[in-house]
Amino acid sequence: MLNILSYLFLAQAAPDVAPPPQEIFIPQQTKPLNGHLDPVPVFNSNNPEVVQSEGILLSTFPPQGKRVPSAHLNFPFQGRFDLFSHHIARAIETPNDLRTLYLGVIVYNPSDFPATIKILQAASYVSQPDAPFIKLPPIQSNNPGNIYAGPGDRVTDDVLRGKRQSGWPAQLIIPPKQSRMLMNHPIPVRTLTPPLNGRSTLLRLYSDSPVYLANLAMFAKPNPDGSERAPTLEEWQNLLENGDFAGPREPAPNPPDHLAGAAEIYGRVAGVAIGSRWQAQLTNSHSSDLSIPESGQAFSYGLSTLLAGKMGTGQSQTAKLVERYPGTAYEAHGNYGIEYDISLPLINNTGKPQTINVLFQTPIKEDELSKPGLRFLSPPEASVFFRGTVRVRYNNDNGLPKTQYWHLVQQRGQMGEPLVQLKMSPGQRRLVKVDFIYPPDATPPQMLTIQTLDTR
Q1: Which of 95, 91, 100, 84 is nearest to 4 (CA)?
Q2: Do 235 and 283 belong together in one domain?
Q3: What confidence tens digit (pLDDT) does each residue in 68-77 have?
Q4: Can you give the residue range of the structural domain that contains 365?
Q5: What is the mean pLDDT of residues 232-239?
Q6: Region label for 262, one of left (φ > 0), alpha (ψ between -120 and 50) or beta (otherwise)
Q7: 325 & 447 share domain
Q8: Are residues 149 and 220 in the same domain?
Q9: Cis amide prior to 251 (ω within 30 degrees)
Q10: Is residue 437 part of a domain?
Q11: pLDDT tens by residue, 256-282
């Protein structure tokens, strides 16, 4: 599920010769994640990923009065909702057309009273110059929040920290029966070689009354002096009412019951998904504690598991779509922009002092496990499957509270380094909280592993 910007980065950064990877098998149990997605709807716009013609990317407006009714899903948002958008502008096939592509999110208030949208958290970045894809180590401390590679990596880190990026107002008031622009942001390519750039956006919002949203793509308008200007509200409204789908369209996905083997095409998402956050309290059955593994043993919980990638847990965590366009993904595979908030109330019931590692891992994807455990590669494959920040909160071995942000870069088959290591005496309880927002430009699934070191 990597985007074209990542593939270009990998092609530039990959070594000429890589040693053939050796498979490493770790026997252990895999478990489904407790909890579930919350009911918050998400405006999820990622199809087409590469946009080369103007039009409608995703509209939840009513279809009445629109030139292309099928482009409008008729879904109002009220209360808490999220907006996720990830699109790329590419002028490679038409190198002489270097106009700036704008993404415009227009919001309409159908009621007879003003509507107020609170912008709780917000971040939107382009790859160039905001968040270029650069080579980073597998793990490094990111407590200041200044480490990222790619716009999806950066936006999820900002929102995880509760930020509202500079330039976003605290609220947007929309008069009755009128529209306003929530976003009118450029994706410039003119000065880039190759002329390729992408923008990722993640917003957490609250509306006090029903509103309709649309994400639209339009090229910048020329000024008399030859410079460019952003499209106006009136121009966006005209595109919404009279425009067709933006293009080129992505390949259609396989139906959910035919996702297997070489023909795995999940498709890009364009629709309304349900679920902004997955909260999990991982415990033993009928207990408030989670017993650590025996010495030298481990078990793992799936993260962002999906159809054909349930890692032996029998669980697909993918957010369901309540509205979607034909020819787009059937579910929000990858859970881009969804927060995972996981509590590990660990207890040492082994009767001996133990050292515990909590790891974030990217094993080889499987659905039913070919063997009872996880398969890794040494060295991992070149393709980056996860690039983002994970927050860990716990009391350290001296009893002091600690919050640590780790920036991770994991390739396919990577075992990962410990997020935290704890020394636990017999009978001791230690709470560890792990949370992150699943970044766009990542490939699921991953695993959260609790490992007891072999002290024999």
Answers
A1: 91
A2: no
A3: 999 999 999 9
A4: 19-36+276-452
A5: 98
A6: alpha
A7: yes
A8: yes
A9: no
A10: yes
A11: 877 765 568 899 999 999 999 999 999
